[in-house]
Task: inverse folding
């Protein structure tokens, strides 16, 4: 693959690193790390920092990148691996998007073109300067399942609902240079990235070669780390700036070395491994840090296992989890159809730059070390509400019982299981109980890229079918692979039919259940769950199981490997111990245990060898950007600027650039603010950002009905991210949000102050805006963990939130808040709201922010809530972020820079 990513880097090359590399009959300009070796211990740098160092050498311009920045990274190992206090500017070479986060980014770029044109400038100057690839993978919803026509029906519904969004993306595909779109029904962006888009080493048509680096608008961009590609998820706000040539400012990161030893035991899967690592690293504490995998156990991990681990980085809070390039990388590139010429370049470049893993070389210097013996991994799930809460398979029943007891405030040992009768679609009467599994979904990028676990699921289904087992009738089953190649090898292996016979028919190529696109439960099930106030479960092979995410009627959500998803569909309940209890009986009445139908490693390996080939990847990706006749038939309107439809309920021109090119007033202290929300620990972006289904009685639901949209056509919040009117109404509206300002409530409820009237958070925010009252949010630890949702910052900004004061922040969300002009403020280490004893109904003053308007970045400012006064740390971490804040956000800053 040859790329033209924009103007070549014009490095000042203070260290004389520019050189030539010959590969076959081609010559490339490269920036050699060896040029620094005599002065700095470059050979002891972790792999990730070597990639960062090359990026700085090539982009040294005297403005964003200075010689001192290069020295800070080059000397990192000599400093003992300590995180740097200085800021560096990382320039990712491409941007990856999925459609949920990509659509609002395109909306913003289109609005920036309008603003540029309105100011008399050239709208064409608003154009990506690096390659941008958007994969439409988040729009398909499991409306139909368990039937042969499920895929065709779901795709047809997807096009009907999303035509306005797809019109925008088709326009962008033609209007922006270097902007490519992978149409619907192709695969999940991270799997498409792994199997096709990732270069590992760029080769440009102007003769440059350098490492493939990227940022993505999805947290799980880190999946490509398994291929040795450095990249991570950012908010859509940062991604838009990167598209427009702005470097990503960051501190030289700490790098945690994850040392692997031993081998996985038979019967354990990549999913079990990654859930173990998630628990281990979340406990160790790696938020905002790089993780790099090394050690003798590395050689035991196939590339697909490495990608599975990289994918889960956000679940333990790491910025990325990188694996060095080695022979496994080259084998995977060859296997997935990359050209011999490109393979030769990757190998030659990485070996020349010291980026090719050599087990005989000295181990890199790391900031911290964590060790894991692979033989300690055991079959596991994670849940019922967080991916880091690993549960050994045998303890799953006790986990579910404890969770239900906690929800109800009861003693687990005295818990009475509730029951309710349900009439299913075929008229069958069944009794549903607490812990019933009502969703079993093979879905998400984490596992569906891995033939080992996908083939294991198919073989387990075949074995179960042969023993006469069937899923329980109340379980909604679905299969949503990450790429079309999966169905190709299922067909070749004869596994499509047994999976379909158990209800695991293909429903789409997309994220589906993992992002809340579960669709309705089977007819009659939701009614029974609600009438009986049951706590029922979903089991999915995804990476996210936060409260309220999977389905509004499901309170227990467990992550599991694809074969375990099939097993729980057969069991129909979390109350069974699958290590000792039978899944059911065969046709002769004999008990059938999970161990009886679990495929052997040898059988899985032989099936993969026979069914999965390089030709499958080459055929599927030969015309990946073209799409089918439905995609080609989507109408395109507009030229350099987009033709907005003011009646659209999917895509509206946003208000973020209404101020045009004029600078806003300088930052000032905040007086007379009110608390909109008082939140606890681990409030995720799923709690903040609109996600999942839209309820008819919600502010967003009422807005849509007022605009002629029937509830059946609401679609999801994710699909309507291009309409700020819907999104602002859905901010803080998660059904599981607990706002302590309105005790005893659940959902998007608050009290308007000082009168104390209880109302929706949106209604209260609009009342405060009418009164001219600024707003703040108070929160606990890990505020903003989870997906890299830009609307978790955009929504609060439109509600009028000026500051978030929390005990700690997750990395991406903190940055996004600054990017939307909201100041993140952190309580002193160890202090809590309970300890401070604040009264959240009192007015809030924030004193000292005016220094930002004077060009300073104060380390601390003072917060006064009623009579309680305390210092807080200003989490504007770099001078560049301070500049963004002074401009009212990163996008207005970029627009003014482009306008000159």
Result:
């Amino acid at each position: 693959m040859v790329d033209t990513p924009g103007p070549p880097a014009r490095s000042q090359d203070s260290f004389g690193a520019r050189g030539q590399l010959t590969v076959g009959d081609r010559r490339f300009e490269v920036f050699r790390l060896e040029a620094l070796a005599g002065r700095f211990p470059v050979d002891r740098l972790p792999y990730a920092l070597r990639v960062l160092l090359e990026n700085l050498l090539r982009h040294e311009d005297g403005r964003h990148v200075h010689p001192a920045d290069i020295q800070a990274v080059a000397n990192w190992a000599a400093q003992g691996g300590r995180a740097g206090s200085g800021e560096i500017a990382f320039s990712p070479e491409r941007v990856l998007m999925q459609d949920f986060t990509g659509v609002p980014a395109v909306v913003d770029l289109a609005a920036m073109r309008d603003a540029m044109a309105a100011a008399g400038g050239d709208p064409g100057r608003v154009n990506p300067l690096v390659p941008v690839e958007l994969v439409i993978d988040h729009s398909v919803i499991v409306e139909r399942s368990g039937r042969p026509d499920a895929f065709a029906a779901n795709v047809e519904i997807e096009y009907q609902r999303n035509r306005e969004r797809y019109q925008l993306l088709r326009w962008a595909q033609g209007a922006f240079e270097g902007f490519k779109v992978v149409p619907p029904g192709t695969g999940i962006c991270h799997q498409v990235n792994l199997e096709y888009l990732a270069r590992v080493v760029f080769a440009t048509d102007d003769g440059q070669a350098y490492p493939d680096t990227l940022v993505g608008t999805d947290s799980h961009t880190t999946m490509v780390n398994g291929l040795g590609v450095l990249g991570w998820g950012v908010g859509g706000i940062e991604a838009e700036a990167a598209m427009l040539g702005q470097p990503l400012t960051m501190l030289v990161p700490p790098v945690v070395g994850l040392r692997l030893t031993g081998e996985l035991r038979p019967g354990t899967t990549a999913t079990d491994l990654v859930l173990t690592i998630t628990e281990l690293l979340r406990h160790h504490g790696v938020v905002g840090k790089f993780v790099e995998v090394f050690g003798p156990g590395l050689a035991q991990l196939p590339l697909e296992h490495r990608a599975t681990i990289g994918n889960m980085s956000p679940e333990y809070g790491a910025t990325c989890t990188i694996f060095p390039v080695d022979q496994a990388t080259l084998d995977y590139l060859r296997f997935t159809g990359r050209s011999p010429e490109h393979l030769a370049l990757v190998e030659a470049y990485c070996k020349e730059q010291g980026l090719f893993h050599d087990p005989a070389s000295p181990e890199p210097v790391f900031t911290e070390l964590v060790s894991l013996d692979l033989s300690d991994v055991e079959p596991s799930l994670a849940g019922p509400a967080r991916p880091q809460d690993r549960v050994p398979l045998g303890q799953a029943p006790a986990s579910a019982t404890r969770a239900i007891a906690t929800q109800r405030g009861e003693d687990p040992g005295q818990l009475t299981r509730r029951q309710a009768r349900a009439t299913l679609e075929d008229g069958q009467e069944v009794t549903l109980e607490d812990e019933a599994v009502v969703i079993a979904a093979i879905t998400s990028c984490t596992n569906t890229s891995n033939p080992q676990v996908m083939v294991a699921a198919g073989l387990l289904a075949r074995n179960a079918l042969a023993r006469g087992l069937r899923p329980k009738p109340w379980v909604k089953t679905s299969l949503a692979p990450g790429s079309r190649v999966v169905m190709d090898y299922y067909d070749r292996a004869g596994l499509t039919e047994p999976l379909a016979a158990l209800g695991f028919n293909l429903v789409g190529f997309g994220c589906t259940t993992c992002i809340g696109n579960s669709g309705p439960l089977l007819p009659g099930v939701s009614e029974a769950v609600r009438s009986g106030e049951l706590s029922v479960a979903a089991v999915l092979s995804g990476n996210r199981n936060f409260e309220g995410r999977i389905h509004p009627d499901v309170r227990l959500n467990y992550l599991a490997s694809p074969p375990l998803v099939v097993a729980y569909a057969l069991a129909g309940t979390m109350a069974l111990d699958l290590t000792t209890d039978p899944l059911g009986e065969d046709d002769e009445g004999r008990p059938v245990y999970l161990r009886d139908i679990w495929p052997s490693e040898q059988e899985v390996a032989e099936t993969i060898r026979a069914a999965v080939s390089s030709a499958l990847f080459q055929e599927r990706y030969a015309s990946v950007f073209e799409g089918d006749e439905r995609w080609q038939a989507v109408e395109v309107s507009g030229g350099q600027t987009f033709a907005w439809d003011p009646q659209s309920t999917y895509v509206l021109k946003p208000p973020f650039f209404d101020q045009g090119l004029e600078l806003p007033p300088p930052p000032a202290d905040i007086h007379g603010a009110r608390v909109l929300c008082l939140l606890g620990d681990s409030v995720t972006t799923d709690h903040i950002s609109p996600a999942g289904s839209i309820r008819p009685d919600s502010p967003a639901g009422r807005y849509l009905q007022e605009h002629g949209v029937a509830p059946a056509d609401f679609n999801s919040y994710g699909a309507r991210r291009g309409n700020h009117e819907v999104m602002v109404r859905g901010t803080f509206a998660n059904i599981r949000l607990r706002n302590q300002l309105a005790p005893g409530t659940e959902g998007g409820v608050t009290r308007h102050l000082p009168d104390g009237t209880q109302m929706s958070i949106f209604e209260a925010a609009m009342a405060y805006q009418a009164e001219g009252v600024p707003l703040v949010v108070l929160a606990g630890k890990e505020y903003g963990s989870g997906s890299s949702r830009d609307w978790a910052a955009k929504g609060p900004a439109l509600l009028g939130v000026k500051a978030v004061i929390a005990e700690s922040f997750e990395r991406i969300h903190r940055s996004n808040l600054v990017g939307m002009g909201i100041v993140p403020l952190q309580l002193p280490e160890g202090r809590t709201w309970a300890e401070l004893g604040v009264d959240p109904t009192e007015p809030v003053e924030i004193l000292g922010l005016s220094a930002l308007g004077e060009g300073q970045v104060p380390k601390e400012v003072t917060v006064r809530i009623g009579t309680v006064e305390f210092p807080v740390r200003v989490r504007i971490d770099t001078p560049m972020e301070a500049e963004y804040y002074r401009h009212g956000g990163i996008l207005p800053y970029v627009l003014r820079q482009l306008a000159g």
